[in-house]
Each structure stands twice: as C-alpha cells, then as structure tokens.
Amino acid sequence: MKKIQTLLFTVLCGAIVGTALQVSAQPSRPSRPCYATVVRIQGDVSYSLGDSNWHPLVAGKYLPPGASIRTGENGGADVVLGIAVNFPQADTPSRIGLAPDAPVRGMISYKPTAEQNAIRLDQNSLLTIDKLTTTDTGADTVSDTELNLKQGSFFASVKKLSAAAQYIVKTPSGIIGVRGTQFSIVLNGNGTIQNVSVFHTTNDEGLILSMTSSSGSTVTQVVSEGQMYVNDSGSGKLIAIPASVIQELQQAFSDLRTIYGLVSSFERDNTIIYESPDFGSHR
Q1: Which helix (H) or strand (E) segment is 94 a member of?
Q2: What pTM value is reported for the model?
Q3: Which domains are present in the chain?
C-alpha cells in the first residue's frame, strides 16, 4: 500500500505539472542514457530521431531517448528498453552478422538480459521515448523511463523496480504510473484511453491511471492484476479481463519472455538470428 501511495503521488504531480518527480536521494554517480534496442520487426515500421524524417526500422537498431517508432497497417515491433548491449560478451554469440542498416551496430539481433524491460508496439501506433536513463547509486540501480504513446496500442513487461525508480507512460489524455507489471494500453482514434489491462503484477502493485475527465478534473484509478479499466463514453469502470483478451495477453507476454532471455538462437548463413514466435493477432 505504501508503494501504491508513493506511485499515486508521483503520477498526480506528473499530471499537474507535466513532468515526472525527481528522486529525492542524490546519486553517487551521474545517470547514463539507455537505448531502445529493436529486436523484432513485422510489416511496415519506421523511426524518427526527433525530426520530421522517417526511416525504415530494422532489427538490431539502437534508438536513443527522443526517438519515435511508428507502425503501419499490420506492422509491429518488439523492443527492449535498457542498457545497450556491448559486444563481445560472454553470453553473446561468437559471430554476429552485419545488418542492412548502416547505423545498426553491426548485428542483426541479440539476447537481452532478463533484467531489462520489453515492449511490443502494435499496428497503427506511434510511440516516443521521452526519457530512458539509469543511475548507479552504489547501493542500487535506479532507472527512469518515460514513454509517450500518441496513438495505437502496446504491451509492456516491466521488471520489479527499485523504490526510487520510475516508469511512466504518457498518453494524450492521461498518465500511467507503473511498478513491476505486465500490462497493455489501447487508445481510441482521438488519443483518449480506450482500455488498460493488467495481466500480472509484482507484489500486487499494479498500476495507476491519472486522467483528465471531460469536465477538466483529474481522475485517478488503481488497476490491479486481472483487471481491465474500460473508458466507455467518458465514464470509466473496472471489469475482469475478458477471456479473449487474456488469451491475447498470454500470447504477447509469452513472446516477450523469449526476447529477454528465454529464447534459443540458431545459426544460419553465418548470421546469428533469434528464433522467436510470430507476432500474435493485432487488435
């Protein structure tokens, strides 16, 4: 309950002032930027580095904070958020094939550690990585993640965070504060939240929505494991996740688990490629 209250306070302040709270403890070392590493691509997917130029996205691309990912019809992307993988490593393949995109750091794909967060961006979606850093305080590693889902939908698997860490998802109509949670967000065409589902949580923490109602007031809602928040005609309510949605969530998070550690690799044409399931059905 104490962590929920702390998270609620953080989200409310973010909704009011538009920025995330800074951790109160001063880190012993400066924060360092992380990257969104693209692990799997399906269909039409492109990226931008904060300007109006869009480029085709390929697996293996490192995207820094400020970058955006856009998926088209039947497009999708699996992305790991965290420390960039440096080669060579003891747990990486001995041979890495060159990728077709010059900015890619010399590989097709890699095996991220199980301690990193992963997301699956669905079709017709637009996501901007506003902030992605980590700080080593000496006693702990504190991460700070801010994503901005402007349209569409995505699935996110968030590891259990340290007390000072934060993971925030912004939408055009509200902010979502997350701890250790597997969840999905679906937006309506106008950017308002259609629904938010919490598939699994760590220590029953769930997530917190902070939204602006049609009257202009701030509405907060805690969504726990097994619940879906449905924003029906501006009047939100909590329901049990429907069976059809549970199947979709199970598939998505099963796929994401293969991304951050439980995946076997195979060698083909002198290139290491990761063997993972196809994308599940889109919304």
Answers
A1: none
A2: 0.74
A3: 2-17+35-274 (2.60.120.1440)
